[in-house]
Design a protein that fits this description.
By secondary structure, this protein is mainly β. It has a single domain, classed as membrane protein fhac: a member of the omp85/tpsb transporter family (Porin), CATH 2.40.160.50. It is about 0% helix and about 60% strand. The chain is built from 1 helix and 22 strands. It has a 20-stranded antiparallel beta sheet that branches. It has a two-stranded antiparallel sheet with strand order 16-17. The longest helix is centred in the middle third of the chain and has 5 residues. The protein is globular and about 60 Å long.
């Protein structure tokens, strides 16, 4: 099946012991290296590595800060480089996050809508820079609010001649620069950042791209992400549930439209197969505890995209389901590598290997 993208081998994973730990002044530091190899149809053989630097104040209940580097390179000379820094300041009253990256990496375009066929895709390769900075202030309990700046440049390095992009010419089909300002309201009541066993998490946000700041087009995106975690019984499995909604207006570049499919949302469907102005989805997972370093997960997901809020309906939902295995890299930080097998109501499937949980 074309939608099966496979990671073949995780280099040295089973030989990695507990990640290195050190102490800063008033903070602990956990270093997690992760080399890997992978193969997928668009990239051929590829490989790379990541380095996670997890810091935490030496205070009971302090939240973990996850910073790190990621590098990918493929047989077709495609690459992606990403660096991220996260920090809590002033006794966690301020949360600061910044990332910067550069890539020349392929993606798939199936068209726009909720009924794109699985074999109707076109591979395109954009090249560009991405940067983001957000600052949030804790104003009441576990509530935070603050602004965000996003910058993205895109030029189209490769696309199929007389393909879907050239025929349909959606906004951004030949590349697009984006500068967006936004704000978000966040509630974080989880008991742990990487592997919560109870609590609520919520994010409501709006981002607006402005031509006056340098964007090629003006558009806006609004999103609501709501998650709940609950352990069933004193030592039972963990039930995790998520509801997600996204809505965009204006001249949105086609590759920034809300999309379903891939490793995070509706596993089993090819990434970005369904795109449109409005998206709504639900996810549920049952996470079983560890035996030595191994854990397991079962999941069910459903969602759809529409042309706008006036087309909202629970008909024609896409459904995926599956199971996964978890390997614990750090017992202290509860940091996992996840391997998920997803299957769809259309009979397709996919295999995914990633850091941390899907949500």
């Amino acid at each position: 099946m074309k939608s099966i993208v496979a990671v073949l081998f995780v280099s040295g994973l089973l030989m990695v012991g507990e990640p290195a730990r050190a102490e800063e002044t008033g903070r602990t530091l956990t270093i997690v290296p992760f080399p890997f190899l992978f193969y997928q149809e668009e990239t051929k053989l590829g490989g790379g590595g990541s380095l996670s630097l997890i810091t935490r104040r030496q205070v009971e209940g302090a939240r973990a800060e996850n910073s790190g580097l990621l590098f990918l390179y493929t047989e077709r000379n495609q690459y992606s480089i990403l660096a991220e820094v996260e920090r809590y300041l002033d006794a966690e009253r301020w949360h600061v996050r910044a990332l910067v990256g550069f890539e020349e990496f392929p993606a798939d375009y199936f068209g726009r809508g909720n009924d794109n066929p699985s074999d109707g895709d076109e591979v395109f390769t954009p090249r560009g820079f991405v940067g983001e900075v957000s600052v949030q202030n804790q104003f009441s309990g576990r509530w935070r609010v603050g602004p965000r700046l996003r910058v993205r440049t895109r030029e189209m390095v490769e696309r199929e001649e007389a393909g879907l992009l050239e025929i349909q010419r959606p906004n951004g089909w030949d590349g697009a620069d984006v500068v967006a300002l936004g704000a978000a309201l966040v509630h974080d009541g989880r008991d742990h950042v990487f592997y919560p066993t109870r609590g609520w998490w919520m994010r409501a946000g709006t981002d607006v791209a402005l031509t006056s700041l340098g964007s090629d087009d003006a558009f806006a995106e609004h999103s609501l992400d709501l998650r709940r975690y609950q352990r069933l019984g004193e030592r039972g499995p963990i039930l995790a549930v998520r509801a997600l909604a996204r809505h965009s207006t204006g001249n949105v570049p086609f590759d920034l439209l809300p999309a379903l499919g891939g490793a995070q949302l509706l596993r089993g469907f090819f990434g970005g197969r369904f795109r449109d102005r409005t998206l709504y989805a639900v996810q549920s997972e049952l996470r079983v505890g560890h035996w030595r370093r191994l854990g397991a997960v079962g999941f069910v997901e459903a969602g759809r995209v529409t042309a706008g809020l006036d087309a909202l309906s629970i008909a024609d939902l896409h459904v995926s389901y599956g199971f996964g295995v978890r390997f614990q890299l750090s017992a202290e930080e509860k940091l996992h590598v996840r391997a998920d097998f997803g299957f769809t109501d259309e009979g397709d499937g996919g295999f995914y290997l990633n850091f941390q949980e899907a949500f």
